[in-house]
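Re-run with default settings, no changes from the original entry. Doing this only to confirm the output is reproducible before filing.
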Amino acid sequence: MKHISKAICRMRTGIAATLLALACILPLAPARQAMAEPSKKTGVLLVNHGSRSETWRNALLQLEKKVSGDVLKSGAIKGIKTAFMEYNEPSIATRLKEFDNEGYTDIVIVPLFLTVSPHSFEDIPTIIGQKEDPSSVEHQKIERIECYTPKAKTCITPLLDFTDVLQKNVLRRAQALSKDAGKEGLVLIGYGDETYDKEWGQLFDKVAEYVKKNTGISEHSYGWCGHIAHYNPEETTKAINKVLANKESAIVIPVLVAHDENFQIKIIGKGIENVERNRERVMYKPDAILPDPNIESWVTSVALAHARQTLAKGAQ
């Protein structure tokens, strides 16, 4: 009996010691896990090309103000900033450094570009350290664009052509100018891109077909006003005259993200002036894609979708 009693005592002592050890260990486990896996802090960076035009820059800054409330209210995103890729501060590098200094762990980059270009495929990934493209690196050096690889993880969202936002935008603007669709032709003027000329042409054809389907306009053309066209107004004139060969009048829509006096007024405007009887035959408003509530909704939805993906990955 004595041996049994001693065995029971030893058993009780062992169980007590085990429970005491567990009591000491378990409360510390969550704290240690929290230290090993810091909570996510996700920010959004709206990236645009940049411009010497203050009007252009203000349109992009206004976009940030308009979407901030909806982007931040869910709690998935803690901050939103705007960066200019070229010409202006705050640059992409400047903003990424700010995010790092503010303790962000993840950054969702939303490029406000129409479609594929070296900017979206090479330049931005190179600037943020996701890619090392030799030609892009050289371009950044020539243009004195700082590259910076942030401590935070970065992801880049799809471009504007990923949805039908652009089609709806151009349709709305064309309908506002249209007087008699059966007698009109549609002319789209964009910046253009040498490397991805085919893709830009396909996008503009797609947009034009959408407008034609919803208005009764039966003919369209497009032209470029940027570097690919050497900023020559004559390219706009040619695109307009192409539809005027078969139509009584032309609706000219600048497919540019924001208003820049050099493009909407000097280049496209001059191209229109060179068209015979342009006051009678050409309908034009020197506006831009922005502002647009649909663009604001797109920015909000794409930013939140990627931020939630980031949070979901962190929870796994």
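The two ends are 55 Å apart (CA to CA). The chain has a mean pLDDT of 89.
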